[in-house]
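Notebook entry, structure prediction.
Reason for the run: the old model in the group folder had no record of what sequence produced it. Starting over properly, with the input documented here first.
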Amino acid sequence: MVTTAAYHHVIRPVPGGGSDGPLLSVVFDRGRTNLALARRELDARAETLLA
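New structure, fully documented this time:
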């Protein structure tokens, strides 16, 4: 995760993609996003990408 003055940049490996698998990269508006909830939702969505 990288945080700037305006945004949170979150990068997650997609489960099931192996060690060289795809990454999921999402940018959240820092002023409008609850980061804990956004990360939880991102993890749940990442689980379904290669299912």
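Summary: The two ends are 24 Å apart (CA to CA).
The old model has been moved to the deprecated folder.
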